[in-house]
Amino acid sequence: GKQALETVQRLLPVLCQAHGLTPDQVVAIARHDGGKQALETVQRLLPVLCQAHGLTPDQVVAIASHDGGKQALETVQRLLPVLCQAHGLPPDQVVAIASHDGGKQALETVQRLLPALCQAHDLTRDQVVAIASNGGGKQALETVQRLLPVLC
After folding, report:
1. DSSP 8-state code for residue 20
2. What is the pLDDT of residues 90-117, one digit of tens each?
3. Is residue 134 within 8 Å of 140, Cβ to Cβ?
4. What angle do CA 150, 143, 87 make, to 5 degrees?
5. DSSP three-state, residue 56
6. Which residues of 40-54 are buried (b: 16+ CB within 10 A; e: fewer)?
C-alpha cells in the first residue's frame, strides 16, 4: 500500500507525460499486489514492448494490472517472440493469456504444452488459448493435458 503510493507519486509524471498513460491507468496498475514493482516494470518495459514487440500501451497496462504484473510483463517480453513465431499465436492472444493473475505461469505453460495439446490431443491453438486465458490458466492446462485422454 504505502510503497505503491510512494511509487505512484514518483512515477505518475513520467508514466503520464513520457509514456502517455492516464492517471487512472497508473492507479489500476498500483492497486494490485506487487503494484510498486509492476509500475517500475511498466516504466522500464513499456517502450520495449510497444516499439520492439508491437504492443499498445493499453495492452501493457492490461498485463500489468493484475497480481504479479511485473512477472507477467517480463515473461511477455521474453516469450512473445517464441509464442508468435514458433507457435503461431498472434500478439493479442499472448496478451489475453498474460492479462490475468498468474499470467507468467500461464504463458510458460502454454509454451510448454501447446505442441502436445494440439498434436497429441487434437485441440486447436484457439482452444488452448481460451483455457489459458483465465486466472489459474497454468493449472487448467495441466489438468486438461492429464484428464483429456481419460475423459475422451
Report:
1. -
2. 999 999 999 999 999 999 999 999 999 9
3. yes
4. 105
5. coil
6. ebbbebbeebbeebe
CB atoms within 10 A of CB 73: 27
- Rounded to whole angstroms, the Cα distance separating 34 from 85 reads 30
Closest listed residue to residue 138, CA positions, set 108, 106, 110:
106
> Which grid coordinates belong to 8?
505512484
Q: Report the predicted TM-score, pTM, of the whole model to 2 decimal places.
A: 0.91
Cα 13 to Cα 80: distance, rounded to the nearest angstrom: 29
How far, in Å, CA of 28 to CA of 65, rounded? Answer: 6
CA-to-CA separations, 95 to 4, 44, 91, 117, 150, in angstroms, rounded? 24, 18, 6, 20, 31
46 torsion bin: left (phi>0), alpha (psi -120 to 50), beta (else): alpha
